[in-house]
């Protein structure tokens, strides 16, 4: 596999044309690998749903006077499922990391090779952009390739499986859980659009910083650099405010979901409509979906941001050879 990858890199150096869209770049990095990752993801969320049912049965058997051997057998089954889930997740994460690193290397080699082919006519502006891409911008874009398809498949699969299980156990309690996600589904795209605007500004300013670090000919360079550093600070702070405000709202929604389960579930237990094990399963279920939902939101954020970053790298991959405009901000 390693030899094939190195051959691909050498071949790509002869044709350093980046696909027009991020989806084309992901496809170019290997459809076969993505298919294997999807299979691992499906297996992972299929195995991941089973511990919830085992937990419910353990609690119910313990409260209904089942034998110790029966409970220990369920505990052993639970441990086996947890170990299986962890092992599959380990393989999946390492595999995704490898694919991401291959994509990062490809991007860097394409930019470096383009710089070598245009070395004679390369301007300081292009040198600065090349430095920025090779050192910083390629990593998040290439790293996204490993999770681009498997992450939504895995996390959406977990959400669907756990949600279906909850509806099967108690539809009204499941509605309390579903209500947690509705406001978030509305807020995330809106706030992410605002974050993307700031990310694009940040990358542009960082490139101008790199340009000035290569070209010191402008007498106003120190003044411009100080202004750019300040602009980076302000842009990053605005990103933090948007990002963590969204995190706060998401956490609040989940806590309201727990409150709904406690209130409605407690009422059903008191009135004898459900067993205590069902409430435990719902609490565990909401806890189990909080991570995949958060991961799905993070994936959406990464997708939108990576699309912006990829387009900027693609547009700069020709290494602009026009004269530098030192005063650009």
TrEMBL record:
Record domain ABC transmembrane type-1: where:
226-303
| Keyword Membrane recorded | yes
The residue stretches assigned to a coiled coil in this entry are none
Its GO CC terms? Answer: plasma membrane
One function term, GO molecular function aspect: ABC-type transporter activity
Keywords of this entry: ATP-binding, Membrane, Nucleotide-binding, Transmembrane, Transmembrane helix
* Bilayer disposition of the protein: Multi-pass membrane protein
Q: Where in the cell is it found?
A: Cell membrane
Q: Where are the transmembrane segments?
A: 35-54, 66-84, 167-191, 248-270
Q: What is this protein called?
A: ABC transporter ATP-binding protein
Organism expressing this protein natively: Rhizobium grahamii
**Taxonomic placement:** Bacteria, Pseudomonadati, Pseudomonadota, Alphaproteobacteria, Hyphomicrobiales
């Amino acid at each position: 596999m390693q030899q094939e990858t190195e051959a691909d890199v050498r071949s790509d150096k002869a044709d350093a044309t980046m696909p027009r869209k991020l989806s084309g770049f992901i496809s170019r990095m290997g459809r076969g690998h993505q298919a294997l990752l999807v299979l691992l993801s499906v297996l992972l969320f299929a195995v991941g749903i089973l511990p919830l049912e085992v937990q419910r049965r353990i609690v119910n058997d313990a409260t209904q006077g089942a034998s110790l051997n029966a409970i220990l057998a369920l505990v052993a089954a639970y441990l086996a499922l947890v170990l299986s889930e962890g092992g599959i997740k380990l393989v999946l994460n390492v595999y995704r990391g490898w694919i991401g690193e291959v994509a990062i290397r490809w991007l860097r080699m394409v930019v470096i090779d383009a710089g070598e082919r245009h070395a004679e006519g390369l301007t300081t502006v292009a040198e600065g952009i090349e430095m920025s891409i090779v050192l910083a911008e390629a990593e998040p874009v290439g790293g996204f390739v490993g999770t681009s398809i498997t992450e939504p498949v895995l996390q959406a699969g977990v959400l669907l499986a756990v949600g279906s299980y909850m509806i099967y156990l108690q539809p009204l309690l499941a509605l309390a859980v579903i209500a947690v996600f509705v406001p978030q589904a509305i807020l995330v795209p809106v706030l992410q659009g605002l974050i993307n605007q700031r990310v694009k500004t940040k990358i542009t300013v960082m490139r101008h910083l790199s340009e000035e670090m290569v070209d010191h000919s402008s007498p106003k360079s120190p003044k411009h650099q100080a202004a750019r550093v300040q602009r980076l600070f302000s842009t990053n702070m605005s990103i933090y405010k948007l990002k963590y405000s969204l995190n706060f709202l998401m956490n609040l929604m989940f806590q309201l979901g727990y409150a709904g389960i406690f209130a409605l579930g407690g009422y059903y237990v008191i009135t004898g409509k459900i067993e205590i094990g069902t409430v435990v399963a719902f609490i565990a279920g909401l806890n189990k979906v909080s991570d995949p939902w958060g991961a799905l939101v993070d994936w959406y954020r990464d997708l939108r941001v990576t699309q912006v970053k990829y387009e900027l790298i693609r547009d700069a991959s020709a290494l602009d050879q026009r004269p530098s405009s030192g005063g650009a901000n």
